[in-house]
Amino acid sequence: MKKQLKKQLDLQFISSIGGGCFGKVFKIVHSNSKQVYALKVFRKNEKINKQEIETMQSFQNHPNIVRFIKDISTQEIQGYLMEFCPFGSLSSLVQKNSKFLEKRKLRLQVMKDIVNGVLAIHERGLVIQDLKMDNILISSDFTAKLCDLGLAQIPDEQENVTFNNDIFYLGLIFAELGFLEFAELCSQKDCQKRPSILEVAEKLKNLDDGL
């Protein structure tokens, strides 16, 4: 695979930076421009792979969704290039950088970024289904960006695919970042009492940033 990508796209592998049940992610560099990218290479599941590529591509200009660069899929490989986020995942940041949790203003901005990304996806009529800190990346300017949208789909109550489910998992992220009032609001057991993502965004706008 490495030789093929080197030959076809002039890309050089630097390191493996992540992976999951659907594929692996590599840090790579373009040989001529020296531009660094992230490359996601899928395991063989054509339906999910195609869906993720199409979904990521449709949001490529949104500031809080990882920017899609190029579909590099061939008969042998399925995957795509995306922007490289040097601070890694939000879960990794929380685990490795205790000072981050001490900075309320920074935590609040990250939370606003996440909500802004979720809002864009919900407004497109899609449920994320895989909203978690592992799937939120932190860019070079410390902007939080959603990634891994391969499971996103239109709501289906019979399959329990609802916007309320995303709100519940958003509440878990609020809890991890220390915003317990929002965590309780979003993670209510009665899903009908959970706010919409638009209501969450409005409440966040009115939250004092601690300055």
TrEMBL record:
Ranges of residues in domain Protein kinase: 11-211
Keywords noted in UniProt: ATP-binding, Initiation factor, Kinase, Nucleotide-binding, Protein biosynthesis, Serine/threonine-protein kinase, Transferase
Coiled-coil spans in chain: none
UniProt entry tagged with the keyword Manganese: no
A GO molecular-function descriptor: ATP binding
Domain of life: Eukaryota
A single GO cellular-component term on record: cytoplasm
Name of the top EC class for this enzyme: transferase
Record-listed ATP binding positions: 40
Transmembrane as UniProt keyword: no
Enzyme Commission number(s): 2.7.11.1
Cited Pfam families: Pkinase (PF00069)
InterPro entries xref list: CC_SR_Kinase, Kinase-like_dom_sf, Prot_kinase_dom, Protein_kinase_ATP_BS
UniProt protein name: non-specific serine/threonine protein kinase
Naturally occurring in which organism (per UniProt): Anaeramoeba ignava (Anaerobic marine amoeba)
